[in-house]
Amino acid sequence: MANDTVSRSWFAVLPYPEKIYKGSPEEILEQMKQQWIGDNPLKKGHWAYCISKEGMPHVHMVLEGSVSMRFSAVRKCYGKAHLEPTRGSRKMVLQYIHKRGKFAEKGERVVCFVSYGNIEGNKTKTLINQNAILDRIEELIEDGKTPNEIMGEDIRLRKEETLVRKAFFAKRYRETPPYRKVTVVWHLGESGSGKTFSYTKLCESRGEEEIYFCAEYANKGVGAFDLYSGEKILFLDEIRSTSLPYETLLTLIGPYRTQIHCRYANAFALWEEVHICSILAPEDLYKGMVKSEERERDCIQQLLRRINKYVYHYKEGNKYKTVEVEAKRYTSYEELKYSVKKGNEFSYINETNTPFREEKDE
């Protein structure tokens, strides 16, 4: 093949990898992956260690980059491999490597495989018509991808955003029981006490991709969930009495698989955990949300019984601290603050290195 042949996706076969790499099949694939990715996280790849019917060990590979690559450049990485531009779609290539569907071969055995990123295959073969686009969306949804991940696969899928979201939530709706357990944590404390910083800590421990952060409640929250993609944790920041209607707040932290109004395509509440940050205790927020003449019907117990834990944030000098209280032990905000002054146990959020450090205590 000419050294100046260019492709964004290359298919390769390396026979007898043990002649070059050492270790088990899994270790060999890991070495080959690291050799390709190097310090360029934008590269992608899929490697499968196989043994043919005749007993020959070999590795099938799909090698991709963020831009088109010359044959000579790919050859430098795997000098002994047979290379050619990828001819099939992602689905076709993976079926061939793993010997599934029409590519099934008796005697060919896939020992193990490893991948990095989501390979795309030959895009001209993937999204050539509307049916192919729909098939691709369905495939990605069945693979467990979120709308954001799906639309990140190919810019042409963004024009199908409404379809992607509807299909995604239809699948997740079927998988989610009508009644599920939802853990609700109420973060309270004065302004500047580090409540929102708990979002950063949550991202570090649970992963940013698992958390939907919401801090915009214009028009009573209309549009606040337009970008929700099925994240497992909902983080409602700076909730005030004017942020949301009381019935909407109850719905968001309730256990039922309910529909959420969005401007373009409605979503469903699929989260399993909710964190609420407010300078107000729930009893004070309730008084601002519900008129006195309506409180007999919309009682505060509807809110309180949904809360599992309270986290009180406060400062002691330049240190940010917290006290956690189970809902059954919570009596009032004032009692919680009083217990801190008495010297009950607390835990540090951080020392002095936080984004909320202030020169003067509030």
The CATH class name of the largest domain reads Alpha Beta
Enumerate the spans where pLDDT stays under 50 for 5 or more consecutive residues.
345-362
CATH topology of the largest domain: Rossmann fold
Helix content: 25-40%
- The CATH architecture assignment of the largest domain turns out to be 3-Layer(aba) Sandwich
Structural class: alpha/beta
Relative strand content: 15-25%
pLDDT averaged over residues: 85
Shape, per Cα inertia axes: elongated
Gyration radius, rounded:
27 Å
Strand order of the largest sheet: 7-8-11-6-12-13-14
Counted by DSSP, the helix tally is: 13
What does this structure look like?
This protein is of the alpha/beta class. The protein folds into three domains: 6-123, Replication Protein E1, Chain: A; 127-175, no CATH class; 183-350, Rossmann fold. Helix content is 30%, strand content 25%. It contains 13 helices and 14 strands. It has a seven-stranded mixed sheet, with helices on both faces. Strands 4-1-3-2-5 form a five-stranded antiparallel sheet. A two-stranded antiparallel sheet has the order 9-10. The radius of gyration is 27 Å and the shape is elongated. Mean pLDDT is 85; it is low at 345-362. Residues 4-109 form the CRESS-DNA virus Rep endonuclease domain. It comes from Fusicatenibacter saccharivorans. GO terms for molecular function: DNA binding; endonuclease activity; hydrolase activity; metal ion binding; nucleotide binding; nucleotidyltransferase activity. Keywords: Covalent protein-DNA linkage, DNA replication, DNA-binding, Endonuclease, Hydrolase, Metal-binding, Nuclease, Nucleotide-binding, Nucleotidyltransferase, Transferase.
